[in-house]
Amino acid sequence: MFHKDFLLSFFLLFLITLFHFVMCCERDNQNQPNIVVLLADDFGSHDMSLRGSNQILTPNIDALGCQGVIFNRHYTAPLCTPSRSAFLSGKYPINNGMQHSVILANEPRSLPLDEEILSQCLQDVGYKTHIVGKWHLGFARKTFTPTYRGFDSHIGNLGPYIDYWAFTQQTSYYPAGFDFRYNMDVYRNRSDEYATDVVTYEATNIIMNHNQSNGPLFLYIPQVATHSGNTNGGLQATPDDLATVTHIQDPDRRTYAAMVKALDRSIGKIITALSDKGILENTFFLFFSDNGAPTAGQLHTKGSNYPLRGQKDSPWEGAVRGVALAWSTDFEERHYVSDNLLHITDWYPTLTKLGGSTCYTDNIIDGIDIWATLSCNNPSTRTEMVNNIDPVDNYVSYQYNEYKYIVGTTWGGSYDTWLGNMPYEDDPQSSNYAQLVMQSDAWLALNPYASTTLTATDVLNIRADTEIVCQGQGVSCNPQQGPCLFRIYEDPCEENNLASDPAYSAIKTTIESRLGSIMSTMVQPNNVHTDRNANPAFHNYIWTWWLDDTSSQSLSNFF
Question: Do the beta carbons of residue 403 and residue 487 sit within 8 Å?
Fold first, then answer.
């Protein structure tokens, strides 16, 4: 009898637990939340103080992480355009031809027009859709641009970068051309103001003017920060921000740190605007960077991804592994660090489903719905991930369960080392780190919705859980000579190559077989030859949709 009663009690407990497990991971999609996504540009994963660095303090970013969930294994593509494509389409760049390089300012291509992107999906189910900031998915034709691709409005630049004060883009082969738009119109009203703050202001203005009765808000904010500006002096910051980082000796690193300060301020102001508008409680807020920082090389910023190996535009963790911070009052669990594996493509099915769209089932995508992981900390169902396969640069970066496989590299191996080990130049206020976080604008707006009372000790513990610790140097790896294999969970800094170890020959064979299958179906890169008709000198020194511009001066006047 005792045995039967015990089994019955155990079975009832199991059913209750299962019911809770299922229900906590379901959301009432009848109540469409506002969705706000702030995408940083070339932001170093070690340049948020949440990761443990005291050199650049980012109290608003850190507050968002502490109040929400910190996803410590969030992966992107290694470059700007491929990441933006993956986020908006839910597809690996290898599956729509976006895997090689970025869209150049004079390159007449775009994210393929047959892709039904996130903004279109949400617009179709009643969202008011807005983008403020950098597009970088093509503008040679009007149909390539945001307001033709599901956004009700766009304020910002169309190309890869701009001068932070003049809002011009200058390349090594063309003169400076103005690149800042209000929908389809050239928008000069805000020039001579600091670009990061302008993007912040315009985003908060959209929030404050949003009429919830007309539909929920989807606000995509691809910030210009912290990408370098023009090649002739790309690191630019305000005097006020520079005054907060005088403890940093290297002038480039100091200016970059001031640019990070503006990015951090942006987070605080946007979250505060949502609170002031009274819509924060029903808002899903997401922050991450499109890729790692370019510590060295072309358009470098002195940003740091240390101790991760590599940097932007490489096959290593420093290029593709960042931190995603997500917040929603609908999360069953908050205030912790998650080691679940997430990929940038996962936001497409998750956010479309969250908004009530069926795009995630209507389209063939690579992303998976991660709501149960976001809300309940359930294990991710993702078992593999293509960081990138680039047949032009001839490299592969791929993760299969706990293993990461690399063969080939970029830039002749220039970025294959551990870059960005910065001097220990602690901000004088770092001794009051927890207090600074808990006094930030973001904290003050989010804390009323906290699921538990957080203390300074909690903040410090969350920070400690976010820090990456290397296991120490083992067998070296040169991907130009042969494949590299890492147990990436226990070796996050890619220091111990297992490819030649007989104990791992079976897993290496399995991975290479799987890669063969993936590569047999991938789309070839859709890069095209650049077009000198894009020259802004032909269009009143404005970067514009030159393939549609029949009023421009004849090339014969210039060549």
Answer: yes
